[in-house]
Amino acid sequence: MRLAIDVMGGDQGPHAIIAGSAKAAVEHPGLQLTLFGPRQRIIAEISRLPQPLAAAASRLVPCDAPDSITPSTSAAWALRNGHSTSMVHMLRSVAQGEAAAGVSAGNTAALVALARRELGMIEGISRPAISTAIPARQGRRCYLLDLGANVDSPAHRLVDFALMGAAMAQCIDGTVMPRVALLNVGAEATKGSASVREADRLLREYASTSHGAFDYQGYAEGGDLFKGQFDVVVCDGFVGNAVLKASEGLTSMLVERVQMAFESRLSGRLASLLAKPVLKRLKKELDPVRYNGASLLGLRGIVVKSHGSTHADGFYYAIQRALQEVEHNLPARIAGRWQASGSDLNGAS
Amino acid sequence: MRLAIDVMGGDQGPHAIIAGSAKAAVEHPGLQLTLFGPRQRIIAEISRLPQPLAAAASRLVPCDAPDSITPSTSAAWALRNGHSTSMVHMLRSVAQGEAAAGVSAGNTAALVALARRELGMIEGISRPAISTAIPARQGRRCYLLDLGANVDSPAHRLVDFALMGAAMAQCIDGTVMPRVALLNVGAEATKGSASVREADRLLREYASTSHGAFDYQGYAEGGDLFKGQFDVVVCDGFVGNAVLKASEGLTSMLVERVQMAFESRLSGRLASLLAKPVLKRLKKELDPVRYNGASLLGLRGIVVKSHGSTHADGFYYAIQRALQEVEHNLPARIAGRWQASGSDLNGAS
Q: What main location does UniProt list (chains A, B) (predicted)?
């Protein structure tokens, strides 16, 4: 199996991305990773890999792409001028079937726009959505989407998100009948924006006519995300992005405060022994994008976005996520779901 | 000074609200609280107050309002049929100048709609906004608005939120030049919904023409809310509601997890001694609406919404917030800000 890796665009530079790639290669002996970026720089980074990572060096194959897309590059600029960038080369490798999936820690807006052009969309879906699983109570997790690829989403796009999220939960977590909810400001039918109320109507009609796709549970509120009672929560990308980033910011502040509070009450050594391991694990668990990446859904291929500020471990987990999606052939599952439900949805809308 | 209290509508019933009111009365010897609700029930609750709360019983004045608005009542129903409810009686008491401010733990949508009708809006503002201060790094706090009174907010309404939030930070926290930001999916000018980009343009124009109102800092992302670098962050009510409720849910899950993690590593007794006080304080600090209530801004009077599931302490803090707003005459400050900036804003829009 071969994956395509964009080594540029992460805040930590190619070093972290190549180390994360090497870690994945060490763990999966059948895996080969094509690394797109400035060839000399990649070769230099590979040659500096410590053991045991260096053992996988022969399965990290540099592929020259002289340019890169920066965090401030606009999607429009990337579409016009990105031809020789590592991100476009990586996506083309997926589009041409040379790689089973692609992973990038670069600019999200550019990645969404370029992936849409290079890979194309599954029939019936107009734009990619971004999703990740957030941790919930009772060891459960909840796929939240969209996380920022779509703003001002009309009702039919929210319905698309529901179908894609349900396919994701079925595929990756093996949830037979995912419980899907629509994020709103309250549980009452009279509340919410026009597009959310219309999406609720479409999803209710869809749920009443189709069989076996998912279990539509109506509205959820922001606090319900972490309760473990839904497998998928659907919202416009502006809302999902704000919620996810606020959650990351809050987790980081909370963990810092708990740490300070313990350090002020315990001796430094005792605090380190007792509190730090607990807090470190929690932080990791509760910052899903930084640690596990996010999936671009709706494309005719698999693309995983690793967090921009990711370190080697985060990039390694993003590769793991890409491998899971390859194993379950997620795009085919989503396309199948679309064909099966197309007539119901057309009937409903 | 007299405040008007709606004793109905909280999840914990009138008991918690009357106990919270009594606590405020004990603390402020010049304060009288008119309690609106079923008279016999109020009298019975007052007679059961323990010491030292019972000492303030004479300053808790029952005022009969036989009906109440339930959490599931729609705003439309409340406007049509709410005349004899405790919420409407409380608001009329504020509108008629009998009380300096009103506090309710009831249905938010009904409270917003009824307050708008009974108190009227400050000239130039079309709808109330809901705001609370969320805790941020370095002991700072950040006013977030709107929290759910307005969905699908057009650009000019987001500008209204900025002015009201700035007045709030100046008034309550004494921040001379509040740093105001607009929530978006990214810091780049090309990102975001049409209304957010238009509001950014209006706020930039406003900032360049007006003097001394606030310091407009451009876009913020969800994670910036807790960093302490902004005094006010403005967003549509759908987004603010989702972010705030998700933050509440996450805090509660996080605190639970930290607690479990410590209990599994320490003996129960040691965990109780070390971890519980720290976590309890954190939970309180990080759940601002439950503990401090939220303000309805833009009205010609002061109305504070206490959290529906509040206990006596939470209601007590909501009363404290109302008293602060009375002390600084917040509606007059907002109205003054509007008059001062009206010409600039008209010029900008």
A: cytoplasm
CATH of the domain at B204: 3.40.718.10
- Those residues whose C-beta lies under 8 Å from the C-beta of residue A113, and which sit 6 or more positions away, are A75, A76, A78, A79
Q: Which ranges in A61-153 belong to alpha helices (H)?
A: 75-81, 86-95, 108-119
By residue count, chain A amounts to 349
Give the phi and the psi of residue B132 in degrees, each rounded to 5.
-140, 165
Instruction: Please identify, among B119, B145, B168, the residue that sits at the C-terminal boundary of a domain.
Output: B119
The tokens of A27 are what?
């763990």
Three-state SS string across B172-196, please? HHCCCCCEEEEECCCCCCCCCCHHH
Label residue A348 by pLDDT band (50, 70, 90).
very low
Residue B324 token pair = 């602060």
Both B92 and B109 in a single domain?
yes
H helix count then E strand count, chain B: 12, 11
Of all residues in chain A, the one with the smallest CA distance to B153 is A193
Position B180 in a domain: yes
- Which of B110, B90, B87 shows the shortest CA–CA distance to B98? B90
Question: Are β-strands B232-234 and B141-145 bridged in parallel, bridged antiparallel, or unpaired?
Answer: parallel
- Cβ within 8 Å, pair B152-A244: no
Structural domain boundaries enclosing B273: 128-292+327-349
Judge: A225–B246 Cβ closer than 8 Å, yes or no. Answer: yes
Please check whether residues B173 and B197 belong to one and the same domain: yes
| C-beta separation of A237 from A150 below 8 A | yes
Q: Residues A183, A217: contact at Cβ < 8 Å? A: no
Whether residue B278 sits in one domain with residue B239? yes
Whether B301 is in a domain gets the answer no
CA distances from A9 to A288, A314, B189 (A): 19, 14, 20
| 3-class DSSP state of A308 | coil
**pLDDT given for residue B347 in this prediction:** 42
Among A75, A151, A223, beta carbon nearest to B192: A151
**pLDDT tens for each residue of A36-92:** 999 999 999 999 999 999 999 999 999 999 999 998 888 999 999 999 999 999 999
The total domain count for chain B is: 2
Q: Are residues B7 and B47 in the same domain?
A: yes
B3, pLDDT greater than 90: yes
Q: How many CB atoms lie within 10 A of CB B190?
A: 11
> In 3D, which of B4, B2, B3, B6 has the Cα closest to residue B308?
B6
Closest Cβ–Cβ partner in A243, A265, A266 for B242: A243
Cβ(B119)–Cβ(B335) under 8 Å? no
ipTM score: 0.90
Q: What share of chain B is helix, strand, coil (3-state, %, to 5)?
A: 55, 15, 30
User: Torsions phi, psi of A49, nearest 5?
Assistant: -65, 130
Instruction: Count H helices and E strands in chain A, helices first.
Output: 12, 11
pLDDT tens-digit readout, B144-198 = 999 999 999 999 999 999 999 999 999 888 899 999 999 998 766 667 889 999 9
Which amino acid, B55? A
Tokens found for residue B88: 């409407």
Give A-chain residues touching B245 at CB under 8 angstroms.
221-223
Q: In the structure encoding, which two tokens stand for residue B300, read together?
A: 């010609």
Show Cβ contacts of residue B174 under 8 Å, excluding neighbours closer than 6 positions.
Answer: none
What residues of chain A lie within 8 A of the CB of B242, using their CB? 183, 185, 221-222, 235, 239, 242-243
Mean pLDDT over all residues of chain A?
Answer: 89
